[in-house]
Design brief:
Blueprint: E1 5-15, E2 20-25, H1 30-34, E3 38-40, E4 48-56, E5 59-64, H2 70-74, E6 80-84, H3 97-100, E7 104-107, E8 113-122, E9 127-133, E10 136-141, E11 147-151, E12 156-159
Length: about 170
């Protein structure tokens, strides 16, 4: 089951004296997180906060409505911020990493099960899927020639592995 509220960053400190906080974004970029007007302080969405944010280098600076002093902002340090999945319009073929973790990875042609997708690594050129099977980890580049289908509803990813990805390859 997909989570409605996705953990997207952590408040790591304050900025200035007027109550702004610094958020280490766990999502695509500081600009992505800065686009939200409402963030949440719990994974059920019961504690919403209105915010005005802007990207700054590799963090997001955020002014929380009602937090007006550095002391009030300091009390926010360490809190995880969440976004509501309904507030995001993802493009076709774009997925939340949290929805990918745990998917079964299978061969596109033979349906052989290679393992579970356990992490998505960001390398710059393209992402890399970490696939775990029997305690061993394998890495598969997220390129069209390898990743053929992603079906989060069906719970699987179909791949055509490149030579050398798995130990039992020729």
């Amino acid at each position: 089951m997909k989570k409605q509220f996705l953990d997207s960053g952590k408040i790591v400190g304050t900025h200035g004296i007027k109550g702004e906080v610094r958020i280490d974004p766990w999502c695509d970029s500081p600009a992505f997180l800065a686009a939200f007007k409402t963030l949440y302080l719990d994974e059920r969405g019961e504690q919403s906060i209105k915010v005005k944010s802007r990207p700054h280098k590799n963090i997001t600076l955020c002014k929380i409505e009602g937090v007006d002093t550095v002391e009030e902002a300091e009390r926010m340090r360490g809190k995880i911020v969440y976004i509501n999945r309904d507030d995001i319009n993802l493009g076709e073929g774009v997925h939340f990493v949290q929805d990918l973790i745990g998917l079964e990875v299978r061969d596109f042609d033979t349906d052989e099960v290679y393992g579970k997708l356990t992490d998505v690594l960001r390398t710059g050129a393209n992402d890399v899927y970490e696939i775990t099977r029997g305690g061993k980890k394998y890495l598969a580049p997220v390129i069209d020639e390898v990743v053929r289908e992603i079906n989060t509803e069906g719970g699987y990813v179909l791949i055509t592995p490149m030579k050398g990805i798995f130990d039992d390859e020729d």
